[in-house]
Amino acid sequence: MALKIAGVELESRLFLGTARYPSPAVLQQAIAASGAQVVTVGLKRQLAAGGTPNDLKLIRDSGTRVLPNTAGCYTAREAINIAKMARELYETKWIKLEVLGDEYTLQPDPFETLAAARELVNDGFEVFPYCTDDLVLCQRLLDAGCRILMPWGAPIGSGQGIINPTALRTLRARLPGVPLVVDAGIGSPKDAVQAMELGFDAVLLNTAVAQADDPVGMARAFKLAVEAGRLGYESGIMAKQDMAVPSTPVTGRPFLL
Description:
The chain has ten helices and ten strands. The protein is α/β, with parallel strands linked by helices. Strands 5-4-3-10-9 form a five-stranded parallel beta sheet. Strands 6-7-8 form a three-stranded parallel beta sheet. The chain has a two-stranded antiparallel sheet with strand order 1-2. Strand 9, helix 8 (189-197) and strand 10 (202-205) form a beta-alpha-beta unit. The radius of gyration is 20 Å and the shape is globular.
């Protein structure tokens, strides 16, 4: 079943970042191999490097939808300014909101994130907030007008996978109608499978593909992992039990095959 997010229907549930690839050619091949229909771009990172965004044509040529982000921002005001620049440059009201609060863990600042989300929503943006797995914060972001949430699986770029599945399971149960995208910390295809089996709607990742020995092969691996995890969730994963249950019953009435 297709994913409908912010009024747009998507066949792919894998969102892909565009940073740290060996070359633009490899990035383009990885996007194609992943099947992703949404890719993220960091405007501040490119401006800080003294250049201008050079990925716009590549993204448009790939046929994907761009999701600009405010990566590297530490205040609501800074993130809002970057978001407005990105809206003009990429001609989209979509913005992945990142407002960091700690330089070591790159954990988002809940207070600045919420403040920025309120203002951006009021300014007509479709805000995709990067946040922790805190239920109350997520509820406040929804109250502010966000229609999508992007809770982390683990710190950005750590590759730790999902470090608190209980918290993510709680989010899914308490926010049943909200599109939830696991963002950050995904290190291997099995992590993507786990996220999808928890009932999340999509996965966003970057480093695990961009820094792989074979980014194109890894992009395809994640494509298959996301599809497998979602199909397993929709099909109904068997419940875990403390005791063994024989797959072939040995009691009851005999029968012949």
